[in-house]
Amino acid sequence: MTEIYKEIAKLTDKFRTMTYGLTKDENKVNEAVQELMLYFLSMDPSTLRSIWKKDGKKGIIKYGAVALRRALTSTRSNFYYKYEKYYTHIDSASYNCSTTFSNDDVAHNIANNKHISNIANEEIDNTKEEKLELINKELNKIEYWYDRELFKLYYTGETLDSLAAKTRISRNSIFTTIDKVRTIIKNNLNEDV
User: Fold this and answer.
1) At what angle do helices 145-154 and 171-192 cross, to 10 degrees?
2) If 0-12 CB within 10 Å is exposed, 13-18 middle and 19+ buried, where does residue 68 land?
3) What is the spatial distance between Cα 143 and Cα 150, in angstroms, rounded to a whole number?
4) Cα–Cα–Cα angle for 17, 19, 24, nearest 5°?
5) Is residue 39 predicted with pLDDT exceeding 70?
6) Are 91 and 116 in contact (CB under 8 A)?
7) CB-CB contact of 32 with 72 (8 Å)
């Protein structure tokens, strides 16, 4: 398997070139290719071995191309949940793909240095962090470890389907548990506030 992984690593530039066909954003390209490499590493070794035996590098390239296209175009992909969904909602006032701004809005945002690429330079609003700390405290108060850990896994980017596949617990049961924990946390936080 190590030899196959080495060959896949050599294809990084090829995958980057493919990704530029889907997006021109260099950060997205780097993140998508990195996620693809992690995907190959976490993939079932027998499946990867069979692709390699059947078509060699061509098979890996085709498989990678499909995975990259899905990652960058599907709202159900792990890439979307991990990067797109998070970053597009960080600051909706300064970064909204579906909104067209007037010249006054653009001038205002430039004057105030409000753009997604300048977030690191902006003053940090600690209210979000404080809310996350409150949520973590409430989560630690949850009586059953199973409920707590499932909730954490879901909110670190796992989908219901991937959790169901990994844990062999039904999707509906997982949803019910996550919804129950979410309701408990909301109720407890509303009482405290």
Assistant:
1) 100
2) buried
3) 13
4) 95
5) yes
6) yes
7) yes
**Burial class of residue 15 in the structure, from the number of CB atoms within 10 Å of its CB (0-12 exposed, 13-18 middle, 19+ buried):** buried
Question: Which residues, 6 or more positions from 178, have their beta carbon under 8 angstroms from its beta carbon?
Answer: 150, 151, 154, 160
| Residues 41, 64: Cα–Cα separation, whole Å | 12
pTM of this structure: 0.44
Burial-class residue 60 by CB neighbours within 10 Å (0-12, 13-18, 19+): buried
Nearest residue to 91 (alpha-carbon basis) of 114, 112, 108, 121: 114
Q: What is the DSSP letter of 128?
A: H
- Tokens found for residue 16: 């980057």
Cα dihedral 107/113/117/119 (nearest 10): -140
Taking the C-alpha atoms of residue 184 and residue 80, their distance in angstroms, rounded to an integer, is 28
**Whose structure tokens read 């490499």?**
37
Ramachandran class of 95: left when φ > 0, alpha when ψ lies in -120 to 50, beta otherwise: beta
Judge whether 182 and 151 are in contact, CB under 8 Å: yes
* Cβ-Cβ contacts under 8 Å for 12 (sequence gap 6 or more): 33, 37
Percent of the chain with pLDDT over 90: 0
